[in-house]
Amino acid sequence: MTTTPLVSERIGQFFLGEDRLEYTEYGAGGRWVVLVHGQLMPRRMHQPLARALAAQGCHVVTLDLLGHGRSDRPADPLVYSMTAFGEQVLALLDHLGADQAVIGGTSLGANVSLEVAVLAPERVRGLLVEMPVLDNALEFGLVVFGPMMLCARYLPFTVGALRRVTRPVPRGLVPFWAGIVLDTLDQRPAAMAATLHGIIFGRIAPPSRQRREITAPTMVVGHPADPIHPAADAAMLAEEVPGARFVRARSILEWRVAPQRLDAEAADFATSCWETPPAERRSGS
């Protein structure tokens, strides 16, 4: 059984106006990788992958977007959108003094990564995208997240009750992914409603025309039998982005419970983004 080498880990914060955002750094050096969490989930969900990438020489940063994890959670839906989340990632790069980074994420984080590539392509060394939410996922996403938004808005006691039950559970006493589920259920009703409102009623991702103009090296990971994140969306994105590589996970849970194969794929991809000069990688050698 192999173990991941120990790497340094540091918690930091920065401000956008009055709003505070928190992040964790893993490793050191100039090979920056930023990982963005899924919707309503904390940045800690990417801790295993961040440690694996840092062990391969990457300087990894996981960020809690506004409204998530340990970052501030305003109750104003106007501050939440995919574009605003992309701008938060760019503000993180500015704060860190990183000119470029491989930007990656899961679900919401995948779409935010695409927004960063559209907003500031010169800052994106590569894209590591898992479970993007595009055309094939919209109806099911509305069915799942629409009622959650309505409950948070009009039945806030339901969200508050879950928070009171889950918050006292010591995270160190439960398995890692059980702790992530508990953290995800630890929501504040007004902020949760505002976050979901901003996401549901804003643009979900850059349109296909803009996705086809992305020049950064891209690795797309899709899952079979996942209605919220159909493999068809991941495959479509891989076809749209020139030269993108599509990796099919064996199951929805593979990267969570048996991550060795996909961790290795991600590490090889991130490393290759930094080993290949930008001029070469965009010319599609």
TrEMBL record:
Keywords: Hydrolase. Gene3D superfamilies: alpha/beta hydrolase. Residues 32-140 form the AB hydrolase-1 domain. This is Alpha/beta fold hydrolase. One of its GO terms (cellular component) is membrane. GO terms for molecular function: hydrolase activity.
